[in-house]
Amino acid sequence: xxHLRELDEAVSRFAGLAASAEGRxxxxxxxxxxxxxxxxHLGTVHRWAASIVLSGQRVKPPAPxxxxxxxxxxxxxxxxxxxxxxxxxxxxxxxxFSRLGEKAAFWPRRQMHxxxxxxxxxxxxxxxxxxQWGITPDVAADGVDEVLQVFFxxxxxxxxxxxxxxxxxxxxxxLDRSWIVAPGEGEAGTPVQxxxxxxxDEVVTxxxxxxxxxLWHRVSRDRLHFEGPDGAALFDGPTTP
Length: 241
What we know:
- The radius of gyration is 18 Å and the shape is globular.
- Helix content is about 45%, strand content about 10%.
- The longest helix is centred in the N-terminal third of the chain and has 21 residues, at about 35-55.
- β1 and β2 (about 175-180) form a beta hairpin.
- It has helices spanning about 5-20, 35-55, 70-85, 105-125, 135-155, 210-215, 230-235; strands at about 170, 175-180, 190-195, 200-205, 225.
- The protein is of the alpha+beta class.
């Protein structure tokens, strides 16, 4: 997958949403936030990621001065991020918060999913039908990979271990893809991803987008089919920050 190209499209999509919003629309999935908060948060994250990529250093998120209109400010931060990512080779050593695979290639993927999920937040706030959300099955599948590989270890290290009680297979009905996540060592061990050819105890079935957005708690788990209680417990518990 060309994460940089997908990020470019996601930035453009969010910028358009921000421009079409009044800014005061409540965001259902981000308690207490309005669309303007989404734009300020996402623009700040873009600037932070760009500063890490260009400096090659671990830096703190900035506290930027947001100018008006906020949609234009956001578009500028997105353009700056894309320019920074294009200026650095994907295999260059660049740190990231996961401390896994610390190459510049981490950041187009992470920022693409950050932007994609927050674009869904904005679309939900604006009452836009999900048929227009623009999440392809391939992007969603890549997002499931990222959650299992990046955020499950990060959550566990932070004391919010995902509730993985058995070997659970996630099946994307619109792709020839499945994932198996299993408990790690002991009750506090990081859940591990097993090869899809392995046996599983329970199965969770849904479209790739519903699995992806379900893990991000952006859609109800009622959209998924659970064969057993452990899969439901997984989606009810912590899966992403």
